[in-house]
Design brief:
- The protein is mainly α and about 120 residues long.
- The protein has one domain (about 5-115).
- The chain is built from four helices and two strands, in the order E-E-H-H-H-H.
- It has helices at about 25-30, 70-75, 85-90, 100-115, and strands at about 5, 10.
- A two-stranded antiparallel ribbon has the order 1-2.
- The N and C termini lie far apart (about 50 Å).
């Protein structure tokens, strides 16, 4: 195993590389996709995962914040606010947004565009 130091924190890597958010990229996504301040977009803390997202204010009917990966926006062409069609698809298949992969997101968006 290799060990890297980032911002003074030791990170051990296994067979799968550790995904690293970049604060600059996060700020760029928030700015370029025009997230309104009331969404309270937050940069995830070191060691924070989707399993321990902080309690929220009920955005999209959730009791906590949702964690989205940069690939949703950059590779999956996902945009917020999401369309009603996306909400209906997720509801119909009993999926949560966090269960979608970027390629799956592209397929749904492409299908919506064609319809």
């Amino acid at each position: 195993m290799t060990e890297e130091h980032q911002e003074g924190v030791s990170i051990e890597e296994g067979p799968v590389p550790v995904l690293r958010w970049d604060l600059g990229l996060f700020e760029q996504i928030v700015r370029s996709f025009r997230f309104p301040p009331e969404w309270d977009a937050r940069y995830s803390a070191q060691n924070q995962t989707t399993a321990n997202a902080p309690p929220g204010r009920g955005f999209w009917g959730c009791d906590s914040y949702i964690m989205l990966f940069e690939d949703f926006f950059l590779q999956g062409n996902f945009r917020l606010p999401a369309t009603n069609f996306m909400g209906h698809i997720l509801h119909h298949y009993n999926f949560h947004l966090s269960q979608m992969s970027p390629p799956g997101m592209v397929r749904v968006r492409h299908f919506e565009f064609l319809c």
